[in-house]
């Protein structure tokens, strides 16, 4: 696959877990991995020399510390230091470089998260505004590439886009896909959804590798 995956980390356990997951995904699909962090100065006013020192320190943390788990495996990656608000610079970079997937943790270093279900403000913002596929990797998730993908559908265009994403990625991963629809409905609604799911099945099957006949 000729895909570009952007993994975002801030060095937190959640961010590093997402980075490991993204690396496994890229290894399984032969995709390109870029690793980014968004840096902002601690003080509103800073002289140019001090600003440059802090910026370089942030770059070294990303390349030498946070990307160390990738360097140890020999995985190929590009480290990207983004300057500014992550809600602005991450979508901007992803759009400029046409990233096929953005991966990050559910939250970062912002506060003491006492339960695994907490989702941070940056992740929520990107989920609503990124405009391209996004994966939020739970802290307890396996670092292996996914073997099964569950996609929820309701017949809407966004849900069909999610199915299309699965149709593109699942064959390369060798992953099984489960298409799930959950709603209370009457018999007419049921017939409509059967038609939608039937169309989805055709879409998924069309992405499967076709056997080449033996003409010898």
For the largest sheet, list the strands in their spatial order.
3-2-1-4-5
What is the name of the CATH topology of the largest domain? Rossmann fold
CATH homologous superfamily assignment of the largest domain: HUPs
Q: Please tell me the overall pLDDT.
A: 83
Q: Which structural class matches the secondary elements? A: alpha/beta
Distance between the termini: 30 Å
Query: Low-confidence spans: pLDDT under 50, at least 5 residues?
Result: 111-118, 211-216
Helix content percent band: 40-55%
The Cα radius of gyration reads 20 Å
Number of helices in the DSSP assignment: 7
CATH class designation of the largest domain: Alpha Beta
- Envelope shape: elongated
Q: What sequence of helices (H) and strands (E) makes up the elements?
A: EHEHHEHEHEEHEH
Tell me the number of structural domains. Answer: 2
Beta-strand content bin: 15-25%
Q: Please tally the β strands and state the result.
A: 7
**CATH A-level architecture of the largest domain:** 3-Layer(aba) Sandwich
């Amino acid at each position: 696959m000729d895909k570009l995956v952007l993994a975002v980390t801030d060095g937190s356990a959640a961010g590093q877990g997402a980075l490991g997951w993204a690396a496994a995904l890229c290894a399984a699909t032969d995709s390109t991995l870029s690793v980014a962090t968004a840096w902002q100065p601690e003080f509103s006013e800073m002289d140019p020399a001090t600003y440059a020192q802090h910026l370089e320190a942030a770059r070294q943390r990303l390349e030498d510390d946070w990307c160390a788990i990738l360097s140890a495996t020999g995985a190929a990656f590009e480290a990207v230091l983004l300057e500014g608000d992550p809600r602005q610079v991450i979508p901007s970079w992803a759009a400029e470089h046409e990233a096929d997937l953005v991966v990050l943790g559910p939250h970062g270093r912002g506060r003491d998260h006492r339960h695994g279900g907490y989702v941070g403000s940056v992740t929520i913002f990107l989920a609503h505004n990124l405009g391209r596929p996004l994966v939020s990797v739970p802290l307890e998730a396996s670092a292996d590439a996914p073997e099964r993908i569950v996609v929820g559908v309701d017949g809407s265009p966004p849900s069909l886009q999610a199915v299309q994403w699965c149709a593109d990625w699942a064959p390369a991963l060798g992953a099984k896909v489960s298409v799930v629809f959950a709603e209370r409905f009457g018999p007419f609604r049921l017939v409509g959804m059967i038609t939608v799911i039937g169309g989805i099945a055709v879409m998924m099957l069309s992405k499967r590798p076709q056997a080449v006949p033996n003409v010898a």
